[in-house]
Queue: 3 jobs
Job 1
Amino acid sequence: MNEINSIFLYIHKYSLGFININLIGNIYILMTIYQNNQIEINKQKDKFTLVIKKTEKNHEVQQFWNKTSDIIKIDNSSNGNKKLTFKADSIETLSSLLKTKKNKLSYRHGKILFINFLLQLNSLEKNGFGIINLDLNDFIVINKDKERYNTVIIFINSNKIHKLENNHFIFEKPSEVSKLMSCPFNSPEIKNIKNIPIKIHKNTIYYSIGKMITFCINSEIESNDKDSFELALSSIFESKLYYGLMRCIEFNPNERYYLYI
């Protein structure tokens, strides 16, 4: 009788955390470790595959996914750059990483998050799209080694990508605005929405990423104004990341800049 070299078992799992694949005899387990209506992430042995689903949104923002594959440094792609394969030790959400760090993100991780999101966002804005808001579970952390030193942090929730009109997002439905206002790292202009329809400047996301990374570095201080942001970021004072974040959290959207220099 010929030996069966491998049997693929499909196990669907809809929460993201550390997934360990065990080899039992000749059986390799293929796990779906993350899934939404736009993407799916599978793991088999020591390889992960990011599957970009065939949706109208993903077709419109293909440049975003191309940039994302560059950041991940994939091993190969297939199906017209819709399946991106790469090696890693583990994948987790940013929220999961924070828990293991006791809610104190390191400077190195903060820098990786800041720069990678900047690259992803630039790829969108060049093509007339932007990201309206974010939270911790919109990001995954790809740990290339067990020590979590060689890591990649990327934004993966393309549901939050929207078309820009003259550098603004336009929202006309109460349900859309209600969903917006429920996010934890909103800019002042979203918090202060009074009327519908509403125009929101694309730089709203600069404030959101600044506020989110500040929270990741120091969650003990509530950051609502420049003084509180400065206090929360005192551990990285006068660093490149410090100045990058402070440029993002200006009250006036037109005075915000997303730069790492």
Job 2
Amino acid sequence: MSKKVGLFIFLLAVYFASNSEYSVFALLSESESENKSQQKVVELTKTYTPQLWTDFKVLDITPELCSLKGKDILESLSFKSIRSNLKYDKAKYTYGKFNNNQASITCAKLENSTFVYTSVAGPDAEIVERLRNEIVQKL
């Protein structure tokens, strides 16, 4: 009985696979020229070499407070699209964008303090350095 049911299911699967426009048989019988005509070529151009400036501090505050302070700092410097991620146990993150620049402030818990890692990236080294220095100074 189970062999008959298995055979019936197999024949049913073969029937639907052969009658579908997306069947294995239809995909295998497509010509290579049709496949090539459907492919799109995307060209990526490099507009600038990004600059990355980093710094760190050890603060006597909690990682949660550090992340909130980082958010306030980024807001005071007119950063947009500021996001904070407070769901991880060991580290809290704050990110923001300023024109073509991006900054992140990571606050990781140490035994009795918080390790703060700040990074700023963008196209212009002078602006990136200045933003990094302002963020670290305000921390």
Job 3
Amino acid sequence: MKIKLQTMDPQMKRVLGWDRKTEDEIETEARTLADFFRQVKDKDGRTLYDRFMDDSDVIIANSYVFFNCMAFLKREDFERTIKDGDKVILMRALAGCGAG
């Protein structure tokens, strides 16, 4: 099956080694979003799971993951089942955009 991975963030694009693209369709046999993140590697060979999860298996504070237009930050959300055509969007938090 194919999962669409997308980012518009310049820093994320550099991490992924995407100079001139903003999305890619990744062929995968992963069953869950966590499996997908463990399979996909950045340009340095590090998995997205290792790059974006902290020691408590929570998405690091300066990153956001959207799965089929739903944002989440909790570990249990990574156990969602994925299917052909699903879309994952990676974003970085914007500095100064918090409520205050």
